[in-house]
Amino acid sequence: MKYFLAVLFTTLLILLTASIVKAQTMSNGFYIIRMGNLNMSSGHPTGSGYALGFTAGQTANGFYSLTGVNYRVRGGFQYIMSIIPFSFKITGLNIDFGPVFATNAVTRTSTLTVSNGSAGGYIVTASENHPLRLNAKGIDIPDTTCDSGTCTTTTARAWTLPGTFGFGYNCTNVSGTDCSTDFVNSTYFRPFAASPSAVTVMSSSNVGRNRQATITYKLNVSAVQAAGLYTNVINFIATPTY
Asked: Is 33 contained in some domain?
């Protein structure tokens, strides 16, 4: 069998977070999200003895309830504020497959953890800067198309055969049920989308703390794959939705 050198890629954590998610600009070293507000004014002023959330300019902002009826309406920007700050964490940022041998698939994992209190939920998207690449020679390990040849960046399919080559990933729920539903079980994989495109991996319309999923990266190569150190960068982006 052909021996080839360790394969290494890095997951890049794009963390969009605020201590309280509000209609303001959120940014980090890679992205800026500007969330406007169509009201006359709104905000969260604080002082030594008070903290106030307010919305002005709406025709019907406020809290509404009716005795004997099982619903309540909260109208106004201030009700988006949550006791659960938005946060996103990845364990396993540097993935090293080590020495890889032809037709012997290798897997590694990362864990994604999201806490979210926004009114509309959240999404986590994923992409790669390019396929796993031997930069010195410009040679790639192709992204998987799964056993049937029909998996896509948005549709997972079974990948179990030793003669099916490529690189791909699976999402498995740990806490919550937030992985995209096409990941039917742990044998279903997708190829990564190529940046700047990105596809949803996890999402939820509910609030919650520490919602977790395991990302399993799978690599399998043929006997004619050139030896060398192959690398790429995987981008995960977490965004609250409204």
From this structure: no
